[in-house]
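Review this today:
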Amino acid sequence: MPARVATASETVACERATISAGTSAQELMESAGRAAAGEIIRRFAPVLPRGAAVFTGPGNNGGDGWVVARCLAESGFPVTVIEAASAKTDEAREAEDAAGIPAEEIQGDAPPASEPAIVVDALLGTGSTGAPRDTIAAAIEIINRSRADGATVIALDLPSGLDATTGAHELCVEADLTLTFGVLKRGQLLAREVCGEIVALDIGLRAPPLDALPLVVDRAWVAPRIPAIPSDSHKGTRGTLAIIAGGPGMAGAAILAGKGALRSGVGLLRLSVAGENVAAIHGGLPEAILQPWPEDTAAVEALAGVSDALAIGPGLGRSPEVRDLVERVLRTWKGPVVVDADALNVFEDDSASLAALLAGRPAIITPHPAELGRLLGLETKDVLENRFEVGAEFARKSGATVLLKGAPTVIFAPGGERFVSAAGTAALATGGSGDVLTGIVGTLLTQIIAHSMNAGSSESNEAKPPSQCSAAEVAAVAAFIHGRAAELCGPVRGTTLEDILLALPGAWNEPAEPPPPHVLASVPAVP
């Protein structure tokens, strides 16, 4: 079952629907605590004999902590429970009674006397809002000091002090591992720096509200959607991508987009650039077939006749002439297309015109928040505040997929489906990163969408390839691979786009090890 991303209220709705369907709140708590304890033992069994300290709060998150403490104790590991506030819900009190472990109270700002190897944060859960106070705040300070002294900190559901919906936090637990229950929380993906590695555990949520939530894109989801390159492939079967890019002074954008495509396995790359850039790009990207921008419909038709998919936008510049170029290309070319950067900027406050040009073919637009804001007539801050919803209407009206870049990246399909990729690091926050992504998306459009369209229009009785997927899934795969390449580079400072390009083969070919049965998805810690 794939993992989903939810707000605090959506999480509550899923839990209530599951309870209404016959699973009690106590059973959900037991499932959550057992799954978390099992994952803790699986990962940390060698150090658990040194002890675990579980900090519990007053609500059901504290109840989850009591279940974890009981399960660890039943497995023979020494456990201390520090009760920052007395249990106040029926489920939490029942879990405390079942544990049968004497609770200690917060003693000023002193850390646990036992100096445990593992510290479990079960203070505040998904429903908590506002800054932590009193003994909860003191407990958070103690947990963070324990981590500084060498303990491994594990947060249950989310780090205490983190807003599950917005990611806002002041005083907050800084976790090495967050074990979240049933769904990932938006706030975790917006504040990965305090969550460490995030692992979504299956606790039995199966209610219909889940189906409407954004789906999490991770390695297990991506792997079967990457098209294989058979041993008998040739450049024609690996696909031909045309990229229209590189206005005056912007040859680098075309080169980066082209390198992104080549590092993603495209068979033939055709670059159409401003005439003055042809010589520079010949030297910088000798694999590409180069030509000037198409000056008329006949030139676009000629390019279309030798290409499977087209990408347009990186480094074009913003001028009436560029707008004319983009409109001419999109009116004439009716195959799969990626529209990025300046090919979006020239439609500032005129999304209707772009929507009309994109209709009737597989299309993906790849804006960053400022570009989407220009297109839709919104401030960048409004895009960021509504990043999980803002692209849905344009996707519906245009029939195009919207890939909104950022941390996390959110993909909107025309039919209403949403995908979220949290892969990536701040190494991608640099000029040219989006150009590389354009080449990745274009290659996948070439190898999956264009080839499946050609197969569908032929008389062959051969089965369609198992990797065939929608344009939105193509965008989601590309976003994940782009981000994963950055993660493979390690620390951000000193990493360049060239490093990320060199890491792309590793991202494409990384083995997809099946997760444990109780794990829905995992998101690595940011470096």
